[in-house]
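I can't quite decide. Please look over this sequence plus structure tokens:

:::
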Amino acid sequence: MRVEQLAYLPKGKYLKLAVLGYRQLVADFIWLQAVQHIGSTRNTDQGYQWTYHAVDVLTDLDPTFVPPYQATGVFLGVLVDHHEEGLALLKKGIHENPSVWQLPFLAGYISYYELCDPVAGGRFLQEAAQVHGSPSYLARLAARMTVESGDLSAALEFLDRFSRTVNDERVRETLSLRMKEIVQEKDLLFLEEAVRRYRSRYGRSPAKVEDLMLHGVIGRLPEDPLGGEYRVDFLTGAVSASSRKNRLRIHEKVACRGTEGAVPGQPWAKPTSVTLPTVP
């Protein structure tokens, strides 16, 4: 089955009548076709829409089939620029499978990081924490992400916990990159404060970041986790990293990946890798 053929699948409510007692079998067949396109590097935006449609149909046929919700939710909501579709599938899965804590957890990630919506992100995390058998850390993490959503340390913990829910190494690499970006932002905030102290003491900006340590303003220079160098503008005192053109932006107390010309509430830049998670 070619990817474009997924677009011709009838809506689930109609297909149910056609397949009668073979709903699970047909759902399995559709999933086997869709999963090939999820992992394809030749996919397109239109192909992503067809994949969403196929998974929406198959989960109408078999609502308790959890892997399609999770895998396609991560694929669309995290790894390609279709956050709303990924979140829609996860919401559907949450409704049909309220005992699976991983689904609201993933929905919380997409809401918080990809859509810059801390209110919805915190609500999904709280929902995940209330599921029987969910990890004990979820309740505390939900509180931190809701009340202290500007805390970059909380953001790092969330990413770390998320990375432990997937087994695919490429997904973990994507999350590792995002954690490094947050560490970098913490370093830049640290250096900004150091520059302010330097200017207060000497009445001018340092010529280079090393001056902050040479003059005893800081005890050590942080290393850029992305492999670049930290810099300071002598005229303005602005700090930056050579490894990244745009810094993380803080919008409504949320650490989001900014892009040039980005506006509040818009999703992060589109990643290029495509991969699948597994259900724990």
Q: What stands out?
A: Confidence is low (pLDDT under 50) at residues 258-280.
